[in-house]
Design a protein that fits this description.
Blueprint lengths: L1 E6 L3 H13 L3 E4 L7 E3 L11 E5 L28 E5 L2 E3 L4 E3 L1 E6 L1 E3 L5 E3 L2 H17 L2 E9 L9 E9 L2 H10 L2 E2 L1
Parallel strand pairs: 7-13
Antiparallel strand pairs: 1-8, 2-3, 2-4, 4-5, 5-8, 6-7, 9-10, 11-12
């Protein structure tokens, strides 16, 4: 369990979020599938072709006893290490499928230690997370969108219906959705 905000933000916008994380004292962790994690304190380690990152908050502890470099399993599920970082990423578009892939900021609520006792997320991680969420909301305003879907309900089976929803979408990706019919996924 945890808190998250889903959004559609591009690489350039994400660099601003990473900059705010760095200003908050975070270390950026980049972990490509099947590769060792890379750690850094500058935004130049944000690669345009790798969409998922972790902002480690050193004030929260020494990755809660985890040794560096982190083992692959430290990134999966609610772990002690997960109590010290914020998962983050940026959206990317697939021109072939005409879709934009969503990303998020995520922070876990806590974890259960070996004794079965609950260890909540440190307050310092929550403060950094909240700062980053405020920045996301500035870069990707809350926008009401209308999409269509085919109903599967008995009373209007196979009829096309409208669905109104609100999403955090950057102006860049909103233009693609509205003007060039890209789908938000």
């Amino acid at each position: 369990m945890g808190k998250q905000i889903n959004y559609w933000l591009g690489y350039e916008d994400f660099l601003q979020i990473a900059g705010a994380a760095l200003e908050s004292g975070c270390v950026i962790i980049r972990r490509a599938p099947g590769k060792e994690a890379v750690y850094g304190r500058t935004a130049d380690m944000i690669a345009a072709d790798q969409y998922r990152y972790f902002f480690y908050v050193p004030e929260a502890g020494d990755l809660m006893g985890q040794a560096l470099p982190l083992e692959r399993r430290a990134f999966i599920g609610c772990t002690a290490a997960g109590n010290t970082w914020i998962e983050a990423g940026f959206s990317h578009k697939n021109d072939e499928k005409r879709e934009i892939i969503r990303n998020r900021l995520y922070v876990q609520s806590g974890f259960y230690d070996d004794k079965g006792e609950y260890v909540p997320r440190p307050v310092c991680v929550t403060k950094v997370y909240n700062r980053l969420v405020r920045m996301v909301k500035k870069l990707a305003p809350y926008t009401e969108l209308t999409d269509t879907y085919v109903s599967m309900n008995d009373e209007d089976y196979l009829q096309e219906k409208e669905w109104k929803h609100k999403e955090y979408v950057s102006p860049q990706f909103l233009r693609l959705k509205l003007m060039e019919n890209y789908r938000l996924r």
